Amino acid sequence: FRRVLFRSVSQTASSEIAFSVGMKIVGSTLDADGERSLSLLTRTSLARTSSAAGEPYSPTASLTLDVKGSQFLVNRILLANDEGQEIAMVVLRSMEGFRQTQKRLNRIVLAIGGMASFAGVLLAFFVARSLTSPLEALAAGVTAVGTGDYRVTMPVSGASEIRALSRSIESMRA
Predict the structure, then answer these.
(1) DSSP collapsed to 3 states, 6-33
(2) Cα-Cα end-to-end distance for the chain
(3) Which of 33, 61, 79, 112 has the fewest CB within 10 Å, making it most exposed?
(4) Does residue 2 contact residue 27 with C-beta atoms inside 8 Å?
(5) Cα 68–Cα 73–Cα 77 angle in degrees, nearest 5
(6) From CA 102, how far away is CA 71, in angstroms rounded?
(7) Higher confidence at residue 94 or residue 112?
(8) pLDDT-derived band of residue 60, with 50, 70 and 90 as boundaries?
């Protein structure tokens, strides 16, 4: 009956669970290796002397437990403190879901970064082209006037400085 109850709570929490009295694991959804690992972790890291019932135990750093190559994030919730014996539920959340989410987010960030870089290069190309095109046309016009071809027209587009220079060359030519 206890195993069915533990499995039911485990499915509701989408996690593996264990119940402890004091430092002893009294039941869990873990296999024997998992219970041994959790028991060792409970004795070394989850022990504490005073707490309030219903309060999740959170040490300064998140605790993780490795069971046969699978990592779990461990959270201990004190259910009762009966005459110095703490009764607690330990919830073990698989880190695999977190890792999959992290990989997916990394791919999204990489794709966004790649698209932003491509857009930046494209924008830089068009800005540079809009600045150099009128200068190239002005240089060609000045070269033509220098060789005696006065029929060439100076560019009237571009930045205000380029237009002013074009007007000045036009006035010299006239």
Answers:
(1) HHHHHHHHCCEEEEEECCEEEEECCCHH
(2) 106
(3) 61
(4) yes
(5) 125
(6) 15
(7) 112
(8) very low
